[in-house]
From TrEMBL:
Gene3D superfamilies: NAD(P)-binding Rossmann-like Domain. This is SDR family NAD(P)-dependent oxidoreductase. PROSITE patterns: ADH_SHORT (PS00061). The keyword rRNA-binding does not apply. The keyword Oxidoreductase applies. It holds the Pfam family adh_short. The lineage of its organism: Bacteria, Pseudomonadati, Pseudomonadota, Gammaproteobacteria, Cellvibrionales.
């Protein structure tokens, strides 16, 4: 069985304006897919989309209307075959602060809304569109979805109560959703990155020194992973027709300490 051919297809990458999402968008384009870069950063997202021959759609992943707009834009360019859910955020804070204050419920809820509910919103609506596709192969495969979780789903650190809960939810729904979508020929996989070198670490000598320090805690190789390396795993999940219902840690073997 050959790899899934994405030539002439369309795809969606949430959070595609930078970091992991951008790397995934660029690699999908290299595989012949027309990519919708779905992001809130209009300037950066438009630039990436223009460079790869895709289309930018301003998208709040927790909005049904925005999700449908991204899917409609993709469908105009070709059958939707791939959706990568990379958009996400965090809000650091202990469950109870040193001053005895509980973590604000609105912050906790917001992280869950974007990272978990937003992921489900995008994937469910993308899968509905994929279910209309003609099968690509004798197995009846119509598309593939990859959700980005995090090593924090398993090794959540101090101050990551909201983030870890949201990403553990993404991991937890992987198998039941893959089982649901088997009926329509859509595969679902999850990639859980460890320490990846993205723009969140900033730039300059101090940033580089900090990243080098973090890299020492990685088993091997002793460095942060690159967005490109992460995207390689995402592409494998999309193009390997037998890859389904998996959660893959891509973290250089790190197991995060409490802090």
């Amino acid at each position: 069985m050959p790899r899934v051919n994405l030539e002439g297809s369309s795809s969606i990458v949430t959070g595609g304006a930078s970091g992991i999402g951008e790397a995934c968008a660029r690699q999908l384009a290299e595989l012949g897919s027309k990519v919708v870069v779905a992001d809130l950063n209009e300037e950066r997202g438009t630039k990436v989309a223009d460079e790869i021959g895709g289309k930018f759609v301003k998208c709040d992943v927790s909005s049904i209307e925005d999700a449908d707009a991204a899917i409609a834009a993709a469908a105009e360019m070709g059958p939707l075959r791939a959706c990568v859910n990379s958009a996400g955020l965090g809000a650091a804070g202990r469950t109870v602060s040193r001053d005895g204050e509980p973590f604000p419920l609105d912050k906790f809820s917001f992280v869950i809304k974007v990272n978990l509910i937003g992921t489900f919103n995008m994937l469910s609506r993308a899968a509905a569109e994929m279910s209309k596709n003609e099968p690509l192969d004798d197995d009846g495969g119509r598309g593939a979805i990859v959700n980005l979780a995090s090593a924090a789903a398993f090794d959540g650190q101090i101050g990551q109560c909201a983030y870890s809960a949201s990403k553990a939810g993404v991991v937890g729904m992987a198998l039941p959703i893959a089982r649901d979508l088997a009926a329509v020929g859509v595969r679902v996989n999850t990639v859980a990155p460890g320490l990846i070198d993205t723009p969140i670490y900033g730039e300059g000598p101090e940033s580089e020194a900090f990243k080098a320090h973090l890299g020492k805690s990685v088993l091997f190789p002793k460095r942060l992973g690159s967005a490109e390396e992460l995207a390689f795993a995402v592409m494998d999940c999309i193009t390997n027709p037998y890859m389904n219902a998996e959660v893959i840690r891509l973290d250089g073997g790190i197991r995060m300490p409490p802090k």
